[in-house]
Amino acid sequence: MSFSTIAIIGLGLQGGSIGLAVKAYLPRARTTGYDVSPAHRARAAERGLVDEVCETPADAVRNADLVIFCVPPGAMGMAAEQVREALPAHCLVSDVGSSKQAIARDLGAALPDHMVIPAHPVAGTENSGPDAGFAHLFRNRWCIVTPPATTDMLKLSDLVGFWEALGANVEIMTPEHHDLVLAVTSHLPHLIAYTIVGTASDLEDVTQSEVIKYSAGGFRDFTRIAASDPTMWRDVFLSNKDAVLTMLQRFTEDLTALQRAIRVGDGDMLFDQFKRTRAIRRSIIEEGQDDSRPDFGRNDHENEK
Amino acid sequence: MSFSTIAIIGLGLQGGSIGLAVKAYLPRARTTGYDVSPAHRARAAERGLVDEVCETPADAVRNADLVIFCVPPGAMGMAAEQVREALPAHCLVSDVGSSKQAIARDLGAALPDHMVIPAHPVAGTENSGPDAGFAHLFRNRWCIVTPPATTDMLKLSDLVGFWEALGANVEIMTPEHHDLVLAVTSHLPHLIAYTIVGTASDLEDVTQSEVIKYSAGGFRDFTRIAASDPTMWRDVFLSNKDAVLTMLQRFTEDLTALQRAIRVGDGDMLFDQFKRTRAIRRSIIEEGQDDSRPDFGRNDHENEK
């Protein structure tokens, strides 16, 4: 392992999982960490998310050769500025943010003398905070690394090795392409899930209690995604605005076409659209990106009760 | 138990699960079944979904005191006509369809001399066919019964008792209200999931392979719902057109408002919308309608591998 001291700024789901994963899979590396919330720092120390929870971001990075910013996309620039004076010159700077162009720009502006290689592990749950992390979050998930054109190839290789050690498969792409791909596989799904849960909350002729009771018909799946951290997701949409709006436009066109098919009673069009989608599900399961058990295995669990 | 012979027309996920649930929870009742597909009949017999798989729908219902139609909403009327001559006069007619006004009308028109009490167990998985069913599908799920105004109260009570014996909680409502509630908790989520999976399949600048690889960011949840039976869902949208279009209109308005907030950079509006939705998730878990484990427990499973 090329990194001996890893500083983690932000000890929520991602930061906490990285800390625990390093302990599990890279036990010789030392970890330090900082979180802006005193309560989260205390809890992080109790759970042992990192070897040392520091009281300032500067203390956390002072001996680091890798610092990973695990804060919401909109807070990356400020978090980076807070460590600038203390950050060793050789320390590699990375992050786990869900948008890459804006974050690369913000980290680069705050730390112009450091090598910055942004990254995004495509892994998570709907939970957040210092209790949410676990060591195997990244296992068999993809981590997308978006090196700048002028990247240090040795440091890039070290970062790739780091994520592979944590169990992830690594893919390299440009920040522009990352932002387009994630707009469709992650950002648009979250936007739609937040929307429909909001729509269902505001109805007059269907009560909230009915929405909750009959949620097993499909709605409950959306509430899981819509339970994700609101601060982070606000920042994702603001920091990847163009790609999200582009994908949203495509989605709206497709939805309008299905709406019209329903209105005019075009069953053939509906059937043709609906039967296309099973193949994608099958591929996702074959490639190990989802659970093959029906209903995500919920029924296995319910059966055990 | 008030029913001694139960005929199940359609031996897919719902029909097969009812058959297995009757065996498990009402072992003294006899079940007969029919499916329009010879291959499905053969498989149903192999799995023992019902005590007797019949070669015609008429044979299946000849001695029944309850017949449950478990076919797609658009096939209910024809399935009912096929049993009319053989159906005993006292036999109660019910179904499991996802829309209730259109099905009540179709079953009533086909069987004008029988008591028809439609029902809808709000339970399922993305799988379909004779291999999809399991006995505990209905446990702790809601079954909505929509009796006509002139219902036979004793038969209604028998049907409620039947579903409770299978583990469901029963709620009574009008077919109109059912169709409105399910439009938001089930039909709209499915329409949106089918749409987004279609949108993601048709992009030029993001490949299908990328959509699959990075689906763990949220998209994979939608592919599960969009893997549901296309024939059934075509019929659901056609048979509950008005309520679906009403809910879709509300959803589109809300999505447009969020789109505008992203475009103008209104982070406060986004945050306010996103933070409202966690409470609903919490209630759904508290009421036992979803799994409390993060990511539906997927990570527990992956950890075991």
TrEMBL record, chains A, B:
Keywords: Oxidoreductase. It comes from Novosphingobium clariflavum. Pfam families: PDH_C, PDH_N. This is Prephenate/arogenate dehydrogenase family protein. Residues 290-305 have a biased composition (Basic and acidic residues). It comes from the Bacteria. The keyword Oxidoreductase applies. The keyword Nucleotide-binding does not apply. Residues 285-305 are annotated as: Disordered. Residues 4-292 form the Prephenate/arogenate dehydrogenase domain.
